[in-house]
Design brief:
With 271 residues, the protein is an alpha/beta fold. Helix content is 21%, strand content 24%. It has 6 helices and 15 strands.
Protein backbone atom coordinates (compact mmCIF):
# COMPACT_ATOMS: atom_id res chain seq x y z
CA UNK A 1 0.00 0.00 0.00
CA UNK A 2 1.32 3.44 -0.95
CA UNK A 3 -0.02 6.63 0.67
CA UNK A 4 0.94 10.03 -0.71
CA UNK A 5 0.70 12.92 1.73
CA UNK A 6 0.59 16.54 0.64
CA UNK A 7 0.01 19.42 2.99
CA UNK A 8 -0.65 23.13 3.34
CA UNK A 9 -1.39 24.12 -0.26
CA UNK A 10 -3.08 27.36 0.95
CA UNK A 11 -5.11 27.74 -2.23
CA UNK A 12 -6.46 31.22 -3.01
CA UNK A 13 -8.92 32.33 -5.67
CA UNK A 14 -7.56 32.40 -9.23
CA UNK A 15 -5.07 35.22 -9.69
CA UNK A 16 -4.55 35.83 -5.96
CA UNK A 17 -1.27 35.26 -4.11
CA UNK A 18 -0.58 34.17 -0.54
CA UNK A 19 1.36 36.73 1.50
CA UNK A 20 1.36 38.95 -1.57
CA UNK A 21 3.98 36.78 -3.28
CA UNK A 22 3.19 33.07 -3.60
CA UNK A 23 1.15 31.64 -6.45
CA UNK A 24 0.00 28.64 -4.47
CA UNK A 25 -2.41 27.38 -7.14
CA UNK A 26 0.51 26.90 -9.52
CA UNK A 27 2.35 24.81 -6.93
CA UNK A 28 -0.64 22.56 -6.23
CA UNK A 29 -1.21 22.05 -9.94
CA UNK A 30 2.40 20.93 -10.26
CA UNK A 31 1.98 18.56 -7.31
CA UNK A 32 -1.04 16.93 -8.94
CA UNK A 33 0.96 16.36 -12.12
CA UNK A 34 3.82 14.76 -10.16
CA UNK A 35 1.50 12.47 -8.17
CA UNK A 36 -0.25 11.35 -11.34
CA UNK A 37 3.10 10.36 -12.86
CA UNK A 38 4.25 8.25 -9.92
CA UNK A 39 4.91 4.59 -10.66
CA UNK A 40 3.62 2.78 -8.69
CA UNK A 41 0.58 5.00 -8.40
CA UNK A 42 -0.42 5.88 -4.81
CA UNK A 43 -3.45 4.04 -3.50
CA UNK A 44 -4.70 7.33 -2.11
CA UNK A 45 -3.63 10.89 -1.31
CA UNK A 46 -4.12 12.50 2.11
CA UNK A 47 -4.17 16.30 2.33
CA UNK A 48 -3.26 17.22 5.90
CA UNK A 49 -4.88 20.61 6.31
CA UNK A 50 -4.67 24.27 5.29
CA UNK A 51 -6.09 23.26 1.95
CA UNK A 52 -7.16 26.88 1.45
CA UNK A 53 -5.80 30.13 2.80
CA UNK A 54 -8.98 31.93 3.91
CA UNK A 55 -11.51 29.09 4.03
CA UNK A 56 -14.02 30.74 1.68
CA UNK A 57 -16.42 28.84 -0.60
CA UNK A 58 -14.74 30.40 -3.64
CA UNK A 59 -11.36 29.09 -2.49
CA UNK A 60 -12.78 25.60 -2.08
CA UNK A 61 -14.21 25.88 -5.59
CA UNK A 62 -10.72 26.76 -6.84
CA UNK A 63 -9.29 23.84 -4.84
CA UNK A 64 -11.82 21.44 -6.38
CA UNK A 65 -10.81 22.53 -9.87
CA UNK A 66 -7.12 22.03 -9.11
CA UNK A 67 -7.68 18.58 -7.59
CA UNK A 68 -10.11 17.37 -10.25
CA UNK A 69 -7.30 15.87 -12.42
CA UNK A 70 -5.81 13.96 -9.46
CA UNK A 71 -6.16 10.28 -10.36
CA UNK A 72 -5.81 8.48 -7.00
CA UNK A 73 -8.66 8.92 -4.49
CA UNK A 74 -7.98 11.75 -2.06
CA UNK A 75 -9.23 12.92 1.33
CA UNK A 76 -9.01 16.10 3.39
CA UNK A 77 -8.85 17.21 6.99
CA UNK A 78 -9.04 20.87 8.05
CA UNK A 79 -6.20 23.08 9.21
CA UNK A 80 -6.32 26.40 11.00
CA UNK A 81 -6.68 28.28 7.67
CA UNK A 82 -9.70 26.20 6.69
CA UNK A 83 -13.40 26.57 7.44
CA UNK A 84 -15.03 23.36 8.61
CA UNK A 85 -18.50 23.98 7.20
CA UNK A 86 -17.27 25.31 3.85
CA UNK A 87 -14.89 22.38 3.46
CA UNK A 88 -17.62 19.85 4.22
CA UNK A 89 -20.09 21.51 1.86
CA UNK A 90 -17.52 21.49 -0.94
CA UNK A 91 -16.36 17.90 -0.32
CA UNK A 92 -18.96 15.96 1.69
CA UNK A 93 -17.53 12.59 0.62
CA UNK A 94 -13.87 13.55 1.06
CA UNK A 95 -14.17 15.54 4.29
CA UNK A 96 -17.25 14.12 6.07
CA UNK A 97 -18.63 15.41 9.36
CA UNK A 98 -19.14 13.00 12.24
CA UNK A 99 -22.08 13.07 14.65
CA UNK A 100 -20.36 15.71 16.81
CA UNK A 101 -19.98 18.08 13.87
CA UNK A 102 -16.24 17.60 13.33
CA UNK A 103 -14.48 16.46 10.17
CA UNK A 104 -13.34 13.15 11.63
CA UNK A 105 -13.73 9.84 9.85
CA UNK A 106 -12.29 6.37 9.30
CA UNK A 107 -11.20 4.79 6.01
CA UNK A 108 -11.38 1.00 6.23
CA UNK A 109 -10.69 -0.01 2.63
CA UNK A 110 -6.92 -0.54 2.77
CA UNK A 111 -4.39 -2.75 4.58
CA UNK A 112 -3.71 0.16 6.93
CA UNK A 113 -6.69 1.67 8.72
CA UNK A 114 -6.80 5.47 8.33
CA UNK A 115 -8.29 7.86 10.88
CA UNK A 116 -8.63 11.58 10.15
CA UNK A 117 -8.73 13.98 13.12
CA UNK A 118 -10.04 17.55 13.20
CA UNK A 119 -7.79 19.91 15.23
CA UNK A 120 -9.42 23.15 14.05
CA UNK A 121 -10.45 25.90 16.47
CA UNK A 122 -12.46 28.41 14.41
CA UNK A 123 -10.80 31.81 14.36
CA UNK A 124 -7.56 30.63 15.96
CA UNK A 125 -4.21 29.42 14.66
CA UNK A 126 -3.53 26.94 17.45
CA UNK A 127 -5.08 23.49 17.40
CA UNK A 128 -7.09 21.44 19.86
CA UNK A 129 -8.50 17.98 20.41
CA UNK A 130 -11.37 18.56 22.84
CA UNK A 131 -13.01 15.89 24.99
CA UNK A 132 -15.55 15.05 22.27
CA UNK A 133 -12.89 14.60 19.60
CA UNK A 134 -10.63 12.57 21.86
CA UNK A 135 -13.51 10.34 23.00
CA UNK A 136 -14.42 9.71 19.36
CA UNK A 137 -10.82 8.72 18.59
CA UNK A 138 -10.63 6.42 21.61
CA UNK A 139 -13.82 4.66 20.55
CA UNK A 140 -12.63 4.23 16.97
CA UNK A 141 -9.32 2.76 18.12
CA UNK A 142 -11.13 0.37 20.46
CA UNK A 143 -13.12 -0.95 17.50
CA UNK A 144 -10.10 -2.49 15.74
CA UNK A 145 -7.33 -3.03 18.30
CA UNK A 146 -5.45 -5.45 16.08
CA UNK A 147 -5.40 -3.47 12.85
CA UNK A 148 -2.40 -1.31 11.90
CA UNK A 149 -3.63 2.27 11.97
CA UNK A 150 -2.40 5.61 10.65
CA UNK A 151 -3.79 8.85 12.10
CA UNK A 152 -3.68 12.01 10.02
CA UNK A 153 -4.24 15.49 11.43
CA UNK A 154 -3.07 19.06 10.87
CA UNK A 155 -1.36 20.26 14.07
CA UNK A 156 1.52 18.05 15.24
CA UNK A 157 1.24 16.79 18.84
CA UNK A 158 4.77 17.87 19.75
CA UNK A 159 6.98 20.94 20.00
CA UNK A 160 9.25 21.34 16.98
CA UNK A 161 11.79 23.87 18.23
CA UNK A 162 10.49 26.50 15.79
CA UNK A 163 9.18 28.87 18.45
CA UNK A 164 6.59 30.85 16.53
CA UNK A 165 5.03 27.63 15.19
CA UNK A 166 5.09 25.95 18.60
CA UNK A 167 3.17 28.96 19.94
CA UNK A 168 0.29 27.96 17.65
CA UNK A 169 0.62 24.21 18.14
CA UNK A 170 -1.70 21.59 19.60
CA UNK A 171 -2.84 22.37 23.14
CA UNK A 172 -4.14 18.90 24.02
CA UNK A 173 -1.12 16.76 23.17
CA UNK A 174 -0.90 15.13 26.63
CA UNK A 175 -4.45 13.79 26.42
CA UNK A 176 -3.81 12.45 22.94
CA UNK A 177 -0.60 10.83 24.12
CA UNK A 178 -2.45 8.89 26.81
CA UNK A 179 -4.88 7.47 24.25
CA UNK A 180 -2.18 6.53 21.75
CA UNK A 181 -0.14 4.72 24.43
CA UNK A 182 -3.16 2.52 25.09
CA UNK A 183 -3.32 1.55 21.40
CA UNK A 184 0.05 0.20 20.22
CA UNK A 185 -1.40 -0.62 16.81
CA UNK A 186 -1.09 3.07 15.84
CA UNK A 187 1.78 2.91 13.36
CA UNK A 188 2.13 6.62 12.65
CA UNK A 189 0.63 10.05 13.23
CA UNK A 190 1.13 12.26 10.18
CA UNK A 191 0.62 16.02 10.30
CA UNK A 192 1.15 19.29 8.45
CA UNK A 193 1.04 22.87 9.76
CA UNK A 194 4.79 23.48 10.20
CA UNK A 195 5.69 23.48 6.48
CA UNK A 196 8.76 21.32 7.09
CA UNK A 197 9.69 17.65 7.34
CA UNK A 198 10.05 16.73 11.01
CA UNK A 199 9.97 13.35 12.81
CA UNK A 200 9.66 12.65 16.53
CA UNK A 201 8.88 9.71 18.79
CA UNK A 202 5.48 10.20 20.39
CA UNK A 203 3.50 7.92 22.72
CA UNK A 204 5.34 4.81 21.59
CA UNK A 205 4.91 5.52 17.89
CA UNK A 206 6.28 8.08 15.40
CA UNK A 207 4.73 11.45 14.61
CA UNK A 208 5.77 13.43 11.57
CA UNK A 209 5.20 16.73 9.78
CA UNK A 210 5.02 17.02 6.01
CA UNK A 211 6.44 19.95 4.05
CA UNK A 212 4.15 22.26 2.14
CA UNK A 213 3.55 21.82 -1.56
CA UNK A 214 4.19 25.58 -1.79
CA UNK A 215 6.29 27.66 0.67
CA UNK A 216 8.23 26.43 3.71
CA UNK A 217 8.64 27.88 7.20
CA UNK A 218 12.18 29.12 7.77
CA UNK A 219 14.29 26.67 9.78
CA UNK A 220 15.38 28.94 12.63
CA UNK A 221 15.68 27.30 16.05
CA UNK A 222 16.43 30.43 18.07
CA UNK A 223 13.93 31.08 20.87
CA UNK A 224 13.31 34.58 19.52
CA UNK A 225 13.33 33.68 15.83
CA UNK A 226 10.99 35.81 13.72
CA UNK A 227 8.02 34.32 11.92
CA UNK A 228 9.24 33.89 8.35
CA UNK A 229 8.93 31.71 5.27
CA UNK A 230 11.40 30.64 2.59
CA UNK A 231 10.95 29.44 -0.97
CA UNK A 232 12.79 26.17 -0.46
CA UNK A 233 11.68 23.39 -2.82
CA UNK A 234 8.14 22.19 -2.14
CA UNK A 235 7.77 18.56 -1.13
CA UNK A 236 5.57 15.66 -0.14
CA UNK A 237 5.77 12.36 1.72
CA UNK A 238 5.24 8.82 0.51
CA UNK A 239 4.26 6.30 3.19
CA UNK A 240 4.89 2.74 2.03
CA UNK A 241 3.25 -0.14 3.90
CA UNK A 242 5.22 -3.29 3.18
CA UNK A 243 5.52 -6.57 5.07
CA UNK A 244 3.94 -5.15 8.21
CA UNK A 245 6.08 -2.00 8.36
CA UNK A 246 5.45 1.62 7.42
CA UNK A 247 8.35 3.32 5.64
CA UNK A 248 8.32 7.04 4.84
CA UNK A 249 10.15 8.82 2.03
CA UNK A 250 10.39 12.55 1.45
CA UNK A 251 10.36 13.72 -2.16
CA UNK A 252 10.83 17.15 -3.71
CA UNK A 253 8.42 18.66 -6.20
CA UNK A 254 9.99 20.22 -9.26
CA UNK A 255 12.03 19.32 -12.32
CA UNK A 256 15.56 18.10 -11.66
CA UNK A 257 18.10 16.44 -13.93
CA UNK A 258 18.41 12.66 -13.86
CA UNK A 259 18.02 9.88 -13.00
CA UNK A 260 21.50 8.84 -14.14
CA UNK A 261 22.85 5.27 -14.01
CA UNK A 262 25.45 4.22 -11.46
CA UNK A 263 26.69 1.42 -13.74
CA UNK A 264 27.51 0.95 -17.40
CA UNK A 265 28.13 -2.45 -18.89
CA UNK A 266 27.96 -3.95 -15.42
CA UNK A 267 30.73 -1.72 -14.05
CA UNK A 268 30.51 1.33 -11.80
CA UNK A 269 30.98 4.54 -13.77
CA UNK A 270 34.07 6.24 -12.30
CA UNK A 271 34.88 8.95 -14.86
Amino acid sequence: MLIAQISDPHVREPGQRVLGAIKTSRYLSSAVEVLNRLNPCPDLVLISGDATDKGTPSEYAALAALLEPLEPPWFLIPGNHDDRRAMYEAFPDRAPLNADGFIQYVIEDFPVRLIGLDTLIPGESRGELCEERLAWLDSRLDERPGRPTLIFMHHPPFATGIAHMDAIGLTSAAALEAIIRDHPNVERIICGHVHRTIFRRFAGTIASCCPSVAHQVALDLRDDAPSAFVMEPPGYHLHLWREGELITHQAMLGDYSGPYPFHEGGDLIDE
